[in-house]
Amino acid sequence: MQIGTAAPTTTELAAAKHHFIHHKSIKDSYNVGAFEKDAISLLDKLFETKDVIIMVGGSGLYVDAVIKGLDYFPNVEPSIRESLNHDLKTKGLTFLQEQLKELDPISYKTMAIANPHRVIRALEICIGSKQPYSSFLNKNKNKRRFKTITIGLSAEREMIYHRINRRVDIMMQLGLLEEVKALMLFQDLNALNTVGYKELFKYLNEEYELDFAISEIKKNTRRFAKRQLTWFKRDKSTLWFDYLTNVEAIIVKVNHLIGKN
Predict the structure, then answer these.
(1) Do 92 and 170 have their domain in common?
(2) How far is CA 245 from CA 229, 253, 255, in A?
(3) 163-190: buried (b, 16+ CB within 10 Å) or exposed (e) per residue?
(4) Residue 261 above 60 pLDDT?
(5) CA geometry: angle at 46 spanning 44 and 51, to 5°?
(6) Residue 113 and residue 175 share a domain
(7) Which of 51, 65, 106, 211 suits a disulfide with 134, CB 3.0-4.6 Å?
């Protein structure tokens, strides 16, 4: 999955020590909770010899899991999620959204209800615990033993979208379609239900024309980027820099904040 995940190149991997790159199989069950434990365990070791660690990533939930900790949720019967997934297929997302609106109006108003995974997660907690999903948020989180400086790079939305469209074209030129073909046997795995793979699976299953599948990858990536911006802009402590800012200027600012004048 080198191309579709835009993993660091061998040159980039050689330039700096990386962690969590291709460390799991697509067949492995892995989630944000497991990532939090693995990341914190690694950080504890790294901080024995390093003063500063750099974390790079685009998933707000996974970033927050490391720097803020996860909310605790009770275990619920797996059959609840199975039933909700069945409802999604047979009755549609709107049905689940209305159910969430009734059981947890706060989550309905504040969460990304266009994301079926988030809606199903909230509903399974509501149904399994008989309490609103929102009632478990921001309580009893583990305190971190490190401080965090968050850096964001900004650009005009038109530029971001242009870069996304160009990036998808480059990925296709690099052989994304061939990469997806090699994964056809595993197309039902959750790890492959992601942008770039699911659209090309539909092309290979003759549900989409190739041009349309590529346009869908671009559209869905743009939507993902929009959600990323919304998520990260909620954190008022983030230091935003225009993407053309000289790297040295950013380093000077960071060094000042950590006391390295």
Answers:
(1) no
(2) 18, 12, 16
(3) ebbeebeebbeeebbebbeebeeebeee
(4) no
(5) 105
(6) no
(7) 106
| Same structural domain, 119 and 175 | no
CB 69 within 8 A of CB 142: yes
Q: Which amino acid is at 10?
A: T
> Can you tell me the distance from the alpha carbon of 127 to that of 101, in angstroms, rounded to the nearest whole number?
13
pLDDT (average), residues 22-27: 92
Residue 30 pLDDT grade (very low, low, confident, very high; cuts 50, 70, 90):
confident
pLDDT at 213 over 80: yes
pTM: 0.78
- Report the helix count and the strand count for the chain, using DSSP H and E: 12, 2
Residue from 5, 2, 27 nearest 196 by CA:
5
Q: Which of 115, 136, 157 is the last residue of a domain?
A: 136
**Is 231 in the same domain as 181?**
yes
Of 116, 123, 119, 110, residue with least CA distance to 80: 123
The torsion angles phi and psi of 153, rounded to 5 degrees, stand at -105, 130
Most trustworthy range by pLDDT among 43-47, 137-141, 188-192: 43-47
CB-CB contact of 75 with 98 (8 Å): no
Clarify whether residues 94 and 186 are in a common domain. no
Using DSSP, state whether 239 is helix, strand or coil: strand
In terms of domains, do 196 and 117 share one? no
Whether residue 47 is contained in a domain is answered as: no
Three-class secondary structure of residue 56 per DSSP? coil
- CATH number (domain holding residue 104): 1.10.20.140
